[in-house]
Amino acid sequence: MFVIHNPTAGRRNAGKLWAVLDCLMDHGVSVRVLETRSGGHATELARYASRSGADVIVAAGGDGTIAETVAGMTGSAARLGIIPLGTANVLAHEFGLPSDSKALAVALTSAESVTLWPGLIQRADWMRLFVQMVGVGFDAHVVDHIDPGVKRCLGRGAYVLQTLRELSRYSFPSLRVSVDGTDYHAAGVIVSKGRFYGGPYLVAPDALPVEPGFSVLLFENGGAFSALRAGLLLPFGKMPHLSGLRSLRASCVEITAPEDLPVQADGDSVETLPVSIRDAPEPVRLVVGAGSDIPAAFTLSPLPAEHARYQENGKMPGP
Ligand SMILES: Nc1ncnc2c1ncn2[C@@H]1O[C@H](COP(=O)(O)OP(=O)(O)OP(=O)(O)O)[C@@H](O)[C@H]1O
Questions:
Q1: Is 196 in the same domain as 47?
Q2: Rounded to 5°, angle at Cα 204 from 200 and 208
Q3: Which Gene3D superfamilies does its entry note (predicted)?
């Protein structure tokens, strides 16, 4: 098992990483830890781990690290594992991964896995995979302006603080959003693979990360009052009831605006408009365990037959 660790993710909680690794090694699992040195490095490391014949490649970090790791697993038979060490860890909430270190270690050695179908965000000369969501509008502006030091100190609280700072001075744009060829106008848009946003907060109840396609949330009302209402509804899981919110399913989304507005993917500011969003060419298998709280719609499948012997002695193969 290879573990790709982003030491800058979240509040740099290496203690949790080592607690999980200790449990794995106590159970005889051979683990090799590779540390990222910069943004994008997780993709290179995942490619190396895939070439080395890893059967499980674990992303230890936040959603950005997971997305970069998945990008390096293209064409590989390896399965993806997650040790959530990020700020929001939305994907871990999405798949109900346990937060306790021991339960997480057990989950990582599990035979069971689910499909995770990433999305692909593209500009003319650039592309990036994402595992959870892409946002354009006020949320991307907040992500783009967040102070990394404050994020490290306050975690998710940094987003609340920055939202309050930006609310009064933000000029809400008019975005053109093409959803499977039909044009809409909105002040903000979230294209989501999953149901949650910013943590365990429900925004897209019908989303299915195990399948191709997206939930597209169009915020038709701009203005500070509307954004504040959205922010207040979010922690109560009531965002789907926000007035002026249009929710659609789609397989292809294009977003343009007269300005070069920032775009956030999985909580990282990644590019500026225009962008197009579609399904990644292939899914990955995400290792989940008995302790995971998996929604019934995320059908579990057993370990492939060639790996079944590892179940017998409770050990996963080393690299
Ligand atoms: N060693 C590194 N130094 C600086 N940046 C890094 C390094 N390794 C990875 N990164 C970048 O850090 C970004 C943020 O990491 P990540 O998303 O995992 O954590 P987070 O933002 O705290 O968590 P979350 O996405 O759950 O809010 C990644 O997209 C990646 O490009």
A1: no
A2: 95
A3: 2.60.200.40, Probable inorganic polyphosphate/atp-NAD kinase, domain 1 (3.40.50.10330)
Do 257 and 273 meet the contact criterion of CB atoms below 8 Å apart?
yes
The answer to whether position 317 is within a domain reads no
For residue 91, the ligand 1 atom closest to its alpha carbon is: 26
Instruction: Please tell me whether residues 104 and 196 are part of one structural domain.
Output: no
Spatial separation of the C-alpha atoms in residues 319 and 314, rounded to whole Å? 16
Give the tens place of pLDDT for each residue, 210-223: 999 999 999 999 99
Asked whether residue 9 is domain-assigned, the answer is yes
Nearest Cα residue to 232 out of 264, 198, 257, 184: 198
Q: Indicate whether residue 94 lines ligand 1 (CB < 6 A).
A: no
Domain residue limits at 78: 2-117+283-312
Sheet holding 32-35, edge to edge: 32-35, 2-5, 56-61, 79-84, 284-287, 113-116
User: What is the per-residue pLDDT across 237-266, written as a single tens digit (0 to 9) for each?
Assistant: 999 999 999 999 999 999 999 999 999 999
For residues 292 and 223, membership in a common domain is answered with no
* Claim to verify: residue 97 and residue 201 sit in the same structural domain: no
38 within ligand 1 shell (Cβ under 6 A):
yes
